[in-house]
Amino acid sequence: MGKDYQAKVFRSGNSLALRLPAALGLVEGTEMTLREEQGRYVFEPVQALRKTIDLTGIAGSMPWLKPIERDEREFDDPERPWHLLNGKDA
Questions:
Q1: What residues contact residue 10 under an 8 Å CB cut-off, 6+ apart?
Q2: Which of 17, 37, 66, 83 is 20 to 30 A from 26, alpha carbon to alpha carbon?
């Protein structure tokens, strides 16, 4: 079980706020999810979304660029001088 802390609710503009102790280790600006569960309040950091690149806006702007099929893919796989890793000549 974790340590208990006491905090006080106060008015901030038209809202109520809860001042949390710095000892909790929260970082200023962290977004939190707050939910009520059977009369108790649970808060936790919002899960960060994975960042992805959205190419939908440029997909039609390059008509010369066509997707290649799986069987059309070619990869350059050069010879590797493994013998040099051991310090020996082959």
A1: 16, 17, 19
A2: 37
Q: What does the H/E/C string look like for the chain? A: CCCCCCCCEEEECCEEEECCCHHHCCCCCCCEEEEEECCEEEEEECCCCCCCCCCCCCHHHCCCCCCCCHHHCCCCCCCCCHHHCCCCCC
Number of domains in the chain: 1
Classify residue 51: in a domain, yes or no: yes
pTM of the predicted protein model: 0.43
Residue 47 lies in a domain: yes
